[in-house]
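Below sits the subject:
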Amino acid sequence: MDKKVTIEELKQKVKTFCEERNWGQFHNPKELAIGISTEANELLQIFRFKSEKEMQELMNSERKTDVEEELADVLYFVLRFAQMNEIDLSTAIENKIEKNNKKYPLEKAKGCNKKYNEYK
């Protein structure tokens, strides 16, 4: 389904859901940023103290649904933040990738997990 639904369509679904509940009054940038962080941490909690093997087993079990739900919650808040603040996510990601291409050139970054300011 990812290949059939646009970001704009997802933003509209989230907008409709929120407007039907009159939640716009609660969705200022700070509250939405807190929502992104909170949901991201709930996703992280699922993996806390898990070994590589345990994480693989989790992702191949019924608990994968928990991961999907938390990931959806993160995306929900990202979409709502973008929709409420007129941010074009496609443009934002393109600009960020362009910027990161300069910070992480292939000849230095390929296969390396160091931050750009740690390259020698």
Remarks:
- The radius of gyration is 18 Å.
- The chain has a mean pLDDT of 96.
- Residues 64-84 form the longest helix (21 residues).
- DSSP finds six helices and no strands in the chain.
